[in-house]
Amino acid sequence: MTDNIFLKIARHEIPANIVFEDDRVVAFKDINPQAPVHILIIPRTEAIPTLNDLKPENKDLVGHMFLVAKKLAAEFGIAEDGYRCVINCNEGAGQSVFQLHMHVLGGRPMGWPPG
Q1: Per-residue pLDDT, 2
Q2: Burial of 23 (0-12, 13-18, 19+ CB in 10 A)
Q3: pLDDT digit string, tens, across residues 10-35
């Protein structure tokens, strides 16, 4: 798959509440939030359907996604109390859009185990 709804958001073809973007990633508020703060971080240009599709050359991109999550957690005031970063892989784990994406969730207590 070379195109999907998230890549269309990254190209500004579909509107979204974008909270951060740079040359590698786009971050936007989830349209069905599961916490007071629920942001999705996606690769800007590369179609990567699932975590299983990562290649060694994607390691800098994935590391960058985590650094953006840290930045956004601070900006949205959830860094100190705590937040969760989640990457679901395939339908059995709840992935519904087949483009690698990280959920950044916070603003309420998170239970364990999740799911």
Answers
A1: 66
A2: exposed
A3: 999 999 999 999 999 999 999 999 99
Tokens of residue 103, six digits: 């959920």
CA atoms of 6 and 112, how far apart (whole Å) = 28
Domains of the chain (ranges, CATH numbers): 5-106 (3.30.428.10)
**Residues noted as catalytic:** 101
> Could you tell me which of 62, 70, 50 has the C-alpha nearest to residue 1?
50
Read off the tokens for 36.
């007071």
C-alpha span between 79 and 107 (Å, rounded)? 9
First to last CA, the chain: 28
Residues of the chain short of pLDDT 70, as ranges, are 1-2
Q: With beta carbons less than 8 A apart as the criterion, state whether 39 and 30 touch.
A: yes
